[in-house]
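General statements about sequence and structure are easier to judge against a single worked case. No coordinates are needed to read the tokens, only the vocabulary itself. The sequence in question and its structure tokens are set out directly beneath this paragraph.
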Amino acid sequence: MKKQLLLFVALISFCAVNGQAWIQRTNYGSTGRHRASGFAIGNKGYMGLGHVNGSNVNIIYKDWWEYDPSSDSWTQKADYPTNSGNYGAIVFATSTHGYIGGGATLNGEFFEFDPQTNTWTATANCPGSPTDQGAFAVNDKGYVIQGNLLWEYDPATDVWTPKQNAPVTFGNWCSGFSIGASGYIKNGPNLYEYKPALNQWMQRATCPGIATGGSASFIRNGKGYIVCGYSGSLANVTSQVWEYNPGNNTWTQLNDFVGTSRRFTVGFTINNRGYMGTGTNGINFNDFWEMTDAVGMEEAAAADVTVSAYPNPATEQVTFRIPDATGRMQVALYNMSGALVQQQPITNNTCIMQRDALPSGIYFWKLEENGSTVKSGKLIFR
């Protein structure tokens, strides 16, 4: 049982290094998109807005969804309160409320979201017109960058206050996160720390990664994470994952993100677990992923459904063994673009998936029940 369990952990984790693992969760509740917005408050995550702009048509969204990690489910909430929707908006959250404003369709207008009442309320306007730039929250105050200007928002007084200018002019699509009493903005390869208590900026270690913008960011265990993004040109997307340790001011490269490379994705943290979803590489995604600790997953899996898939990599066929399968379960296979390429029922706790004419490459399998994902993993056809 121990060996089988470890195999299961490896399958659902996709990859694990330095104690990290990726798990694919239930897809975002609506259609794929990029330059969306998201944050976490308490034990829930929130995501929405964004756009798709293929074929010279710009479709802008204003829908808003809540993610509950305890049930791995999405629930639609009140729409963002503008007729036009928004994308490329500026986002930060305190311990009780979230704030979204600026962006492609607004100037300095901001709105506060209250998850308890599921309502949006207009706040004081930000003095600038920030779009696609960084923001973070420290000690229940928000901080918004535009160029080299920094504004502090205090929800208690509904007042914006100019703070110390940044030592550089930040470009679009930089990444922001906060750790402890400091906020961080990654602009290209450069990382800057802002200390609100001192109203002071400091340059930190340069990130060795290739992403120059459009990355997701979140924090875990007192460290910052930069995931995916583009390198130089929008078409050159990456799957790199980098961890920043403020304790010794160093960057560590982790194994690549196991989903499809992308830019303009959303990231946030719930209960010390990183989440990211949506984004684009020319195709707009609505998949959703969790980064968690590989350590401890074995215990959680012990009372869960066990899946083994072999051989993997494979040349002709893959056999799935699910000892605890129910008659409502099936195995579905998806390509790297997220398209369903094959689907098979489970018979006598077994599902055999033939390769047929599928090209060589990486595929993702899902154990599904009544339209919901029970487990997922990766397999390779050589």
